[in-house]
Amino acid sequence: MSSDSESRPPRGALIVIAIGLLATVAAALLANPNASAGAVALEWEQHAPLPDSRPAPLPGGGTIQLVEGGLRASGRNVSGYQLLRVAAVLLFSKGAAVGNGRATCTIRVPRLHTLVTHAPGNRGVYPRPSEGEDLTKQDVPSEVVVEFNSQGTDVARVELGDAFERFVDEHGVTVSWAPFQIGRQGWQWGLPPGHPRRPLDLGFAAIWRTTAKPTVHVACAVTTSAGTARVSTAGVLTGEPPPLAE
């Protein structure tokens, strides 16, 4: 065996090194608040609405309903993955008895081959935890950057601002994330006191990376001192997504 062959690193080690470098580059890009400058812009190629849920009576007065829900998906990359965005709005009727109650909303996707994406500083999940502050201070970004391999880059830029104009339209709402679970993303909302003088909207969205058929289930439960109300909806994207240009 030649001395060159003896000194050359094994091919497997080179592959591991290359993968590590790619992961490092992606992490560095996502840690940079200006990551969008190096991200490829992707269009949502597939669209499907989520049916509005039936209004559910809220104990103490008023109703809740899941509305304006929708699925958006990109084309597939060479590895067979596509980005999937799930968004919905939990609507409280005007004058509903929210009274310092709590709401929990959960998006469920197939556990196998579907993972929530990474975004700058955290998951591709919106709104971000409000850390106890009024959620009206958190704006909906028109576009977000997430980790996704396409067209020679490891990050992609996709639209979010078309889902809703704001996460909440009433002061006094806070939000945190439920503990992480594979195939699930949850939000835990703290509601304002009293009865809203107008309909109260809570908008939420998550972006996933999947090789599975995009199938989702969205459910919310609202609990006040008077009891609990629940609403849910579900949907699926049909048809084969187009391949992304590489």
Net shape: elongated
Main β sheet profile: 7 strands, antiparallel
For the terminal residues, how far apart are their CA atoms?
40 Å
Number of helices: 2
Kindly give the count of domains: 1
What value does the average pLDDT take? 86
Q: How many β strands by DSSP?
A: 17
Q: Per DSSP, what share of the residues sits in E-state strands of 2 or more residues? A: 35-45%
Could you state the order of secondary-structure elements as H and E? HHEEEEEEEEEEEEEEEEE
Helical content stands at 10-25%
Radius of gyration: 21 Å
| Quaternary structure annotation | single chain
- Class by alpha and beta content: mainly beta
Low-confidence stretches: 1-9, 11-35
Offer a few descriptive terms.
mainly beta, five-stranded antiparallel sheet, disordered N terminus
How would you characterize the overall build of this protein?
This protein is mainly beta. The chain has one domain (32-236). Helix content is 11%, strand content 42%. It has 2 helices and 17 strands. The protein has helices at residues 3-7, 11-31; strands at residues 40-41, 46-49, 56-57, 63-73, 82-92, 102-108, 114-116, 118-119, 122-123, 125-126, 143-150, 153-159, 174-177, 184-190, 200-210, 215-224, 227-236. Strands 2, 3, 4, 5, 7, 10 and 15 form a 7-stranded antiparallel beta sheet that branches. A 5-stranded antiparallel beta sheet has the order 13-14-6-16-17, with no helix packed on it. It has a 3-stranded mixed beta sheet with strand order 1-12-11. Mean pLDDT is 86; it is low at 1-9 and 11-35.
